[in-house]
Amino acid sequence: LIELKNMYKTYSMGEVSVPVLKGISLTINNGDFIALMGSSGSGKSTLMNILGCLDRPTSGEYHFEGEEISSVSNDRRAFIRNKKIGFIFQNFNLLPRTSALDNIIMPLSYTAEHLSSEDVRKKGMELLSLFGLEERSHHEPSQLSGGQQQRIAIARSLVNNPPILLADEPTGNLDSKTGEEVLEIFNRLNKQNGITIVLVTHDNKVAAHAKKIINIMDGVVAPSKGT
Amino acid sequence: LIELKNMYKTYSMGEVSVPVLKGISLTINNGDFIALMGSSGSGKSTLMNILGCLDRPTSGEYHFEGEEISSVSNDRRAFIRNKKIGFIFQNFNLLPRTSALDNIIMPLSYTAEHLSSEDVRKKGMELLSLFGLEERSHHEPSQLSGGQQQRIAIARSLVNNPPILLADEPTGNLDSKTGEEVLEIFNRLNKQNGITIVLVTHDNKVAAHAKKIINIMDGVVAPSKGT
Ligand SMILES: Nc1ncnc2c1ncn2[C@@H]1O[C@H](COP(=O)(O)OP(=O)(O)OP(=O)(O)O)[C@@H](O)[C@H]1O
Ligand SMILES: Nc1ncnc2c1ncn2[C@@H]1O[C@H](COP(=O)(O)OP(=O)(O)OP(=O)(O)O)[C@@H](O)[C@H]1O
Ligand SMILES: [Mg+2]
Ligand SMILES: [Mg+2]
To answer: How far is residue A20's CA from residue A213's CA, in Å, rounded to a whole number?
Structure first.
């Protein structure tokens, strides 16, 4: 499904270079459920942004369903991103003066012109209920708790039924019970719907829900172990 | 040091009321190290914002060092907030187009007119080193990882040497090693410098570092247990 070959990413800040990914190679197969771990600042979000077509590598290849996409047009990457990938940001990235419901259904405005606005709204309310937040549908992000914002970001990533879900620390703001409910949803999506999941986490208990753990260390993939 | 008596907080959104705190009473003594726990949306950040003089209760009393401050002037509350309280926000609240170093030393511009700008800068660099981020001093928040931003927010809360530290989920974005380093710093501040700490966390392992755990449930304090 996805193959990264010898991927490098260096940020440049004027005259200063910040090398982060230093030759990442990895394969993600259809139906995988992978936990990505590594210390703070090791490059996990950087890797996720590249996987999610939100950023380009400095060098190296990104094969997506057989197509090399690291240097294709922005339009092509935006198409893939909107159609194929659900992304949960580490800092949520919700739209500020926008209700929880409208935040959740936002991706459908790019991809689902055939759905009636009533169907769209219904889908959004279903996702709100799935995450126990139907009573907060009209709240804006500043009127939600941290963990509620996180769940809205998760719901939004699922509204398009994406075949691939990239989740950057999706349970960091959740108590263990609420976190377990979210992981249970991910498990079901992976086992029943065959959705491929890459999940960044700092928590070993969360990582244990995945089928495989990949560790990032010094900008490369450390030897991975199965769970 | 701090006493809350029968504290209520209800948010009003037009015609809708959202009751959150429903009669919180608690005492925080000098030198306490308290972990505040409760499920997502239970009111922990709401309580922390009231403790930090960032928000006022709907009713009830807030006694701070013997002074009832829930209804005193904004100026008085701002004075207490700047001089006495270090606050670590759940979403960091760093200034966007501002370097890590400048973010850290920002509180000193309100409170430390007697320090030379060289001393201020030196203090900021010491805190950056304490958190292992001296090489990131010139990065803006968007050029930092989630856990690095969290550590900058933590450093900023300490720059004033506050007698009270309010930390809203300070390790959520940190791997266990980096999180342990932060908690070690908190431990030292509490044991050696006598700083009073209230720390919100979802993680039982983090809560175990505190001397006492307070649980918030259905808007009130559930029976607390020692650690
Ligand atoms: N735009 C940028 N410009 C310069 N450096 C950057 C930029 N974005 C990130 N970095 C640096 O790249 C490194 C990797 O960042 P990244 O966000 O990928 O880490 P991470 O593994 O997700 O960390 P965390 O667990 O703390 O979220 C960090 O040291 C960070 O300071
Ligand atoms: N400005 C607001 N207007 C209306 N409701 C609000 C507002 N801010 C918070 N709330 C609601 O108040 C409740 C408590 O929020 P709070 O942020 O205190 O929870 P929390 O315990 O910190 O949760 P988390 O663990 O997810 O951070 C939530 O249900 C939230 O939706
Ligand atoms: Mg990250
Ligand atoms: Mg909170």
So the answer is: 20
Interface size, chain A vs chain B, as Cβ–Cβ contacts under 8 Å: 83
Query: Can you state the angle between helices B176-193 and B146-158, rounded to 10 degrees?
Result: 10
Rounded to whole angstroms, the Cα distance separating A145 from A147 reads 6
Task: Give the C-alpha separation, B157 to B165, whole Å.
Answer: 7
Please name which ligand lies nearest the alpha carbon of A145. 2
Rounded distance between C-alpha atoms, residue B82 and residue B218, angstroms: 31
Q: What is the pLDDT of residue B111?
A: 72
What is the distance between the alpha carbons of residues A194 and A200, in angstroms, rounded to a whole number?
Answer: 19
Rounded percentage of chain A residues whose pLDDT exceeds 70: 98
* Pocket residue to mutate for ligand 2, from B20, B55, B168, most atoms within 8 A of Cβ: B20
Q: What is the pLDDT of residues B4-28, one digit of tens each?
A: 999 999 999 999 999 999 999 999 9
Torsion of CA B166, B170, B176, B178, to 10 degrees: -90
Tell me the pLDDT tens digit for each residue of B170-214.
999 999 999 999 999 999 999 999 999 999 999 999 999 999 999
Give residue B197's region: left, alpha or beta (phi > 0; psi -120 to 50).
Answer: beta
Best A21, A46, A142, A175 member to test B by mutation, with max B CBs in 10 Å, is A175
Q: Which of residues 72-131 of B touch A (CB under 8 A)?
A: 90-91
| Overall residue count recorded for chain B in this entry | 227
Determine the pLDDT at residue A65.
96
Please name the amino acid found at residue A188.
R
The token pair at A203 is 């928590």
What six digits make up the tokens of A141? 């992000």
Residue with tokens 């922005």: A74
Q: Is B56 helix (H, G, I), strand (E, B) or coil?
A: coil
- Residue B113: the pLDDT is 72
| Contact predicate B160/B167, CB 8 Å | no
pLDDT tens track for A90-123 = 999 999 999 999 999 999 987 767 788 899 999 9
Does the CA dihedral B124-B130-B134-B138 come out positive or negative?
negative
